[in-house]
Structure formats: structure tokens, C-alpha cells
Amino acid sequence: MNSKMTVGGNKLILALVLSILTYWLFAQSFLNIGPLVQQTYTTSDALLNIAVSLTSLFTGVFMVAAGGFADKFGRVKIMRIGLTLSIIGSILVIISDFTFLLLLGRAIQGFSAACLMPATISLINTYYHDKERHKALSMWSIGSYGGTGLSSVFAGLIATYIGWQWIFIASIIVTLIVLLMIKDVPEAKATQSHTSKFDFWGLVLFVISTLSINIVITQGGDIGWYNPTIIILVLVFVITLTLFYFYEKRKREPLIDFSLFSSRYFIGTVTSNFLLNTSIGALALYNIFTQQHFHLTGFVSGLITLPYMFGVLITIRIGERMMETHEAKKPMKLGSLIVTLGILLLSLSFLPTPIYIIGSLIGFLCFGMGLGFFATPGLNTAVVHTPKEKLGIASGIYKMVATIGAAFGITIFTTVYLVIDEHVSRTTGSFIAFLVCALFMFLSFISTRFIIPEAKEKELF
């Protein structure tokens, strides 16, 4: 492996951050431009909703497999493939008004993100060490959370004043720049002591199980939780996941090495990460509630969420410093508690409108600050305790559970809101739905507190 070469530095960090922005800032902006896209494609609401969710679905389904590919075939190679797929997906989305190409482009964008996220995290852990790795992971998290926070405002501005297609033209330009920036980065992959066969059937079982549960989580509310289709998909998930587990336990070179989950550092961080990322559902819930109840435009409700991004930017490096001077658990626990506080402020929808809006601004600031505290220590704890030959697969699992957690949060919290809105009132529905979200955030704190062992970061190197 070429990882002994000194190839780190700010240029590579910038390239890695720009590469993940192709997903978090550009591809995810599709969530906010649906009506404009529908005018271009003159397609049905159902097909538009599929196009919106397709990228996240394919990202979540294929991320772990792509992490395994990065370990086996090379992290730089998989990153380049991901960037190329991003360009192809963006071109297909804007090249015509043919709905099939729109859906195909969104699916390819999902494959792209699935390749990029585990590969870029693995490259950070390969080419950066100690404090430099902490800094690189912080910059990666800024790209991830900052891109998410800026996405709605960015998409609204570009789509309103220039045209939504320019979002993806900009993505293509950024991607080409990144490809030039990494052209001399040496390859990094896991050392293979022997030639191993690719675990094809393991991949098939894993994709079927992950795809089925993702459809249940994201579409169950629309299709109906007791609909035979959803029930069948739940059974498919249980059966294929069981088969996958026992099949992989017998493989010499499995797709997923379950020994990763024997580490309390890894399982604790993954669990906390899953619970904390359900908070993305609070962003969706807030936009739905304020647009319905206060009749705000999507752009205005997006502006109210902007303190979320500023909060992330303020505290990410602080969380990094806390990790270096204390154990990583401290900023992780603090982050979970601050997010809990932020969500509680968002729940106070029964207050007079001006006071609630001010409380929301403070709430989103706390929301972002909490995620900022958690981001780098959480990601570092997950990868620093992982063997180098398993970095890609571990990174893929870590980000996959974040994606599934976000989808789970959107489904759970919006469903609670809509049910109570229908039978009681809108403000009661939002209040209780945000309280459920706050409970998940506190469970993230509990997971960090009791599962992850006490250990100071400086003792890990």
C-alpha cells in the first residue's frame, strides 16, 4: 500500500470536502426544488417523489458495499469512480425532459455518493495522523453538515434567479476541479495476503435486505403500514438479513466483517450516530409545520433554519479541540444534550408567533452546535479503533446508519405530527412530534455514556 507516502495537506482536504459537497449541497438540493423540476418534466407527484428520494435510497443501500470495494480495489479509484458517476448523473438530470433519464440520473447520483463517502473518510484515516487527522475529519464534517444546512437556501437562490439546472451544472464544474486536484494522489487500499473472490451473493443479500427496509421506512407512511406490500417487504428484510448474517459468518472474505461490532467503541458510536441523525427529521417537520401553520414560503422557512449551519461551523473545531484535550466521549455527550435542548425549543409551537420564531432561531443554533460538537469525535472514534484493512467498510457502515437514521427520523416524526394534526390540532401534533425527536436525542446521549468505554483520546495513538 502507498499510504506511507506523504500526500496529506490542505489541497487534498479541500478536494475531499468538495467531493462530498456534490451530494450534500448539490444532489440533496433536489429536496427543495421539486415543484420547479415538475414544471420542466411535467411528471406526476408520485414520480417526482420517487426522484427526490431515489438518491438517498441508493446511497444508503450501496454505501457499505462501496466501502468494501474501496478497501479491496483502492480508495482513490473508488473516489474517482464516484466523481465520474456524479458528472454522469448530473448530466442525465438536466439533459432533457424525459422522466426516465431523470430517475436514472438520480439513481446514479446515489451510487456516486455511496462511493464517495466511505472512500473519502478512508483516505483521511490513511494519509492523515493524530491532530492532522482530527482537522481533516472536522473539515469533512463541515462539508457534510454545512452542505446540508446551506442546501435549501442555495437551491432556492439558484433555482429562483438563474434556473434549477444550474445547480447541477455547478456540480459538474466542481467535480471536474476535484478530479484534477486528485490526479497525483497515490492509491491506498487494504493489503491482501492472498487473492480473494468477491462476495457476490453476500452483496445480493445485503442489497435486498437494505433496499427493502429503506422502502419500508421511506414509503410506509404513503403506502400504508398495514398494506400487504409493506408487510411483505418487512418479511423480506428479516429473512434476507438472517440469511446474510449466517452466510457471511461462513465466508473467509465476507462483505461485512461482523467482528467490527465486537468493539464497544464502534457499536456505541454507530448507535449514537444513528439516533442523533434521526434529528434530520426535525428539519423536515419544521418546514412542513411552519409552511402549513404560519403559511411561510419554503425560502423563508429555510432562512429560519440557517443558524443550524452557523452552529455547526462554530463548534466543529471546538469539538475537535475537546477531543484532543479530553476523552472523545465528552464532546459527544455534550453535543447530544445541546441538540436535545435545541429540539425542545423547536417544540414550543403553542407560543405566540414572534416568540416562537425567535425561539426557533435559537433552537436551530443549538441544533447545529450540538451536531458540531459530536461530528469529529464521533467519526474519529468509529475509524481510529478500526483495523486499516477495514476502514472502507467501517466508514460505509457509519455513514449508512446515518442515512437510514435520517430517513427513519423523517418518517417517524412527520407521521406522529400528521396523525395528531388530523385528530387533535396542528400545534399539538408538532409539539408531541418534536418531543419524540428530543427523546431520540437523549437516547443518543445514553448510548454514548454507557456503551462507549472511558478512554482518553491521547492514549489511542
Automatic annotation (TrEMBL):
- Give me the Gene Ontology terms describing cellular component: plasma membrane
Q: Which Gene3D superfamilies match?
A: MFS general substrate transporter like domains (1.20.1250.20), Multidrug resistance protein D (1.20.1720.10)
Location, primary (coarse class): membrane
Q: Which UniProt keywords apply?
A: Membrane, Transmembrane, Transmembrane helix, Transport
Localization terms from the record: Cell membrane
SUPFAM superfamilies registered for this protein in UniProt: MFS general substrate transporter
Q: Name one GO molecular function term.
A: transmembrane transporter activity
The topology of this chain with respect to the membrane is: Multi-pass membrane protein
Positions the record marks as coiled coil are: none
Q: Does the keyword Zinc apply?
A: no
Q: Name the Pfam families for this protein.
A: MFS_1
**UniProt entry tagged with the keyword Coiled coil:** no
UniProt record similarity statement = Belongs to the major facilitator superfamily. TCR/Tet family.
Kindly provide the name given to this protein in its UniProt entry: Quinolone resistance protein NorB
Write the gene name.
norB_2
